[in-house]
Design goal:
This protein has 173 residues and is mostly helical. It is built from six helices and no strands. The protein has helices at 18-29, 36-42, 44-62, 72-104, 107-128, 131-172. The longest helix has 42 residues, at 131-172.
């Protein structure tokens, strides 16, 4: 047997060419081209391989791969659970960072407006009350504003995590 000739054929036949490979591949896959029959009629190597290719094609067509076992899905989910949990944590972190970033954008403007309002209130109160009492009232009001701001901005991570959990449960049940 010489290199380039199919098994079961003698070396006296014409050697295989890339055209022979293409013709045999198309015949094996059951998708012959227009000139393949003419090539097989003129090429002894392809003509002798036609019967063997028919048997191989029939064997491939008769053999069906088995379906996946019913226990595969739970095993795959069990194996993927750590990766899915890590991806969920990463997505929750991204949602948290996005929520905090969006919430922090207007914070300088809010602080600026609060300081301006506190100055205006202090100025108005000093007309009616002594400076010490006016300062005390403004500081107490500023403390209330700071407490409300801290509670508001402290709730953002909790709300972002709750939304991420809600999205996860809606997608995965």
């Amino acid at each position: 047997m010489t290199s380039g000739t199919p098994p079961g054929t003698s070396g006296a036949q014409a050697p295989m060419t890339p055209v022979c490979d293409d013709v045999r591949t198309r015949r094996l896959l059951g998708d012959p081209a227009v000139g393949d029959d003419a090539h097989v009629a003129t090429c002894g190597a392809c003509a002798s391989a036609t019967a063997a290719l028919g048997h191989v094609r029939a064997a491939f067509a008769a053999d069906r791969p088995p379906g996946p076992p019913p226990s595969l899905a739970p095993r795959v989910l069990a194996a993927a659970r750590p990766l899915l949990a890590a991806r969920r944590r990463h997505a929750a972190r991204r949602a948290l960072v996005a929520a905090v970033a969006v919430a922090l954008l207007p914070l300088p403007l809010i602080v600026f407006v609060d300081v301006w309002v506190l100055q205006m209130i202090y100025g108005a109160l000093t007309r009616f009350f002594p400076a010490t009492l006016s300062f005390y009232l403004v500081v107490n009001y500023a403390a209330v504003l700071a407490l409300l701001g801290a509670l508001t901005y402290g709730a953002i991570p909790l709300l972002a995590e709750r939304q991420a959990r809600g999205r996860y449960e809606a997608l995965h049940g």
